[in-house]
Prior knowledge:
By secondary structure, this protein is of the alpha/beta class. It has seven helices and twelve strands.
Amino acid sequence: MNATAAVAAAVVPAAGRGERLGPGAPKALRELGGVPLLVHAVRALVRSRAVGLVVVAAPVDGVAEVSALLDGHGLEGKDIRVVAGGATRQESVRLGLAAIPAEVGIVLVHDAARPLVPVEVVDAVASAVRAGAGAVVPAVPLADTVKRVEPVPGGPEPVLDTPDRATLRAVQTPQGFRRETLAEVHARALAEETAGDAGALPPVTDDAGLVERFGGRVVVVPGHEEAFKVTRPLDLVLAEAVLARRRASDAY
Ligand code: CTP
Ligand code: MG
């Protein structure tokens, strides 16, 4: 498949350490059903006809290992490239984006830590960008009530207020962008950082957040409960259960 303006490219930030998951290999290389999280995530992307190229941002000292891993998991024939990631997720995405050919018009950004995203979500995000949105995020309503607090390590923490749950969404990936929208906000954030701008804000935890920071419009499309992020040990237990259910119910 060729990377052209009509086909999207995906950046997969996979350079995190996974500290909240506990000791062990970098999170993207931890296994789910005997297969690394990263391989699940890349498979989920290449299963979409909308995706023609995947660029993985690997841990700096893990580029060769990650390349070998992807080669060994039946993804041959797909256009998959591996670059060194950065110190923050934002930097990893920027470095991945820089490896995408100029003619690619749509870029998806998908966490390696979301191994079970259904292909329908990937397709829906890419279609929304193709239909004209500059920035698209998949999201789900919240189950829990949320409170804003004054953080106090160890607590008790004073409650500031309770946002109306009906207006809140938990956002997932892949997030989709017109390439120039994403490239522009990353370039602006980098320029602020390198200028040592006193007003430069901390790195964002999602790319749509960067678009919002610079006044861009972001829209939400329905996500999926199985697109959850593997963050803590319990998430891995849940992911194993979801995978076992899929394997039992179809030829997954
Ligand atoms: N990520 C990255 N580069 C970094 C930090 C994070 O590419 N310097 C990636 C992670 O590999 C992950 C995604 O961003 O796929 C989402 O981040 P998160 O869930 O926070 O993963 P980690 O940073 O690895 O986990 P933790 O914060 O618990 O250390
Ligand atoms: Mg992190």
